[in-house]
Amino acid sequence: MTATDPTPTTGKTGVAVPVRPAAAATTARTATSAADTVAATAARLRAARRAGTRRATVVVSVLVALALGLLVASVLLGGLRGIPAGDVLPAAFGMRTGLADYVIHRIRLPRALAALLAGALFGLSGALYQRLIRNPLATPDIVGISSGAGAGAVTVLLFAPALPYGVEGAAIGGSFLLVGVILLLSRRGGRVDTNRLVLIGIALSAVCAAYVNYLFSSAGQHSIAQVTRWLVGSVSGADWSGVGVLAVALVGAGVCVLPLNRALGALSLGDQLAHGLGSRVRAARTATLLVGAAAAALATGVTGPIGFVSLISGPIAVRLVGAERTLLVAPAVGAVIVLGADVLAQHGPLISPVPTGVLTALIGAPYFVRLLLRRQGARS
User: Fold this and answer.
1) Is-above-0.85 flag for pTM?
2) CA 7 to chain centre
3) In this model, does residue 374 exceed pLDDT 70?
């Protein structure tokens, strides 16, 4: 047998049957085609990921530019009578005294920055809960986390208003307490039932509202007026200490979200598959709930419960960049919503001045009803 003869094999009859080169070539072509298909799919996925990253970069850049424009408008609108134009920028950095320092550095700039940072925290907390529970209605203000924070904050406002950082601390304590109770009551068969979590959160929100009403019944008229304005949600009384709290909270939440983002992506595939991929499901879920609760509670402690921002920021971010990058874009969306609502609340024709939470409720409540109707239509 020459070197060019096919290698013989033994057939069923025991007779040597040669393996034809055509069969070997077909097998090789099939393997090459499969490898090419895998490589082409991987290339398309990489291209889609790069396109998504570019789109997210553009969207975030536009939102940041819009937020900066609203920040400037919030500081400059309302007039600068008696303040020279050359003193505006130095006064913003505390480099002037007198009227410029009082108007720009002590009133307008802290208010604008508080609206910006609180909106980012509300947007981030809502996106965390929506992505974890996979329900656009599951946000801290709907589930009841904000109500727990509000109950704790109102307690301090009525009985210990002079306590340093007492409102913020009580808001975090109330929100964490509510998270613990919700997690305890929503467990079924050794795991957390997300639908049960939402329903229990709504019920506990009503309990917190009843507690706040009970506190009102035993408070004086002056305290009631102060707390009522706070409960509506407003940044009118923001100062630099509150801005500092919000800035630290946003940085801390951002650092915590970085490792949680991958875990949330695995959890979106289901608990069993996420566990199989190596994710610590219980730890990731608890950490996400606590980080979202802390972000919402600290924002609530400074500005009051500005409603529906956490509800609408996440879905808007999903429409802009997709679910994978929601946590990057939702804070910017929330910042633009709250700061824009505050500018309109201060200077809008026919409506100003009103608390910021009034305008966000006017925007968010119809959107909430729309989400409910869409989910009901999808189920039917």
Assistant:
1) no
2) 66
3) yes
